[in-house]
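Researcher: Please generate the 3D structure of the following complex. Treat every line as part of one assembly.
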Amino acid sequence: MTFQVVLNTVIAIMWAVLWNSYTGVDFLLGYIVGIFILFVLRRFLHFDFYMRRVFAAFKLIALFIKELIMSNIDVVKVLLSPKFDIEPGIIEVPTQLKSDWELTLLASLISLTPGTLSMDFSEDKKSIFVHSIHVPDKEQMIREIHDTFEKAIMEVTH
Amino acid sequence: MTAIEWIVAILCLIGGFLSLVGGIGFIRFPDVYGRTHSATKSATLGVITVMVGTFLYFLLAEGMFSGKILLTILFVFLTAPLAALMVSRAAYRTGVPLSKLTTQDDLKKKYPEARKDVH
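Model: Done. Output below.
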């Protein structure tokens, strides 16, 4: 992946030099041309086309923004209702993610969505302890985290 | 008012409203863990919407691309979860009790010593 980014940057610089105009817009245009060239030549390169991962990363960001807005609405509803009807709890959420980097990302995303807060990791790095302000159904909450964030992160890193 | 001004005003008002809700939550939640929620999270989206409104104003009304504002959003994203994790974990390890409403506690088995005299 690093090699492809370097290659793409070189193409962008060559593009700017050939047009003899060194602005950010030219560089960006050259970068897009480079992405297109790499896409066309992806069969001859002996590795994955790296933009696939970038698309997956954008999908993850879009999913995160959606979750952020939806769960914010939920939390505002809970907070402003006259009857303060909550069942907080700490739940152990098992995860398949391996590297420290992925675990940090997952814990941060869980923390950033309102209503859930990652509190601690287990010793063997196989689960995250999540505090939630409203857990009527433990299994459903674990499933939601697996289906949304964990799946999206795995698409980016694999 | 132009359309841009309306959008910016609405975004800033949403941000202010969310920060207010965060403050209300700070008073209403029964224990330290719930308060960490409202102190860090309602504020997150509140700060982001205010910042996006500011960014759009400078970009569209003044014609200035302000990278500083985008960096602010990034730093809020980096620091808020870490601060929340540190505060809640420190509270749990030193034995701050959970509220009476709490239905389950999976973390208890990891720190049996620290939680011995609680409940």
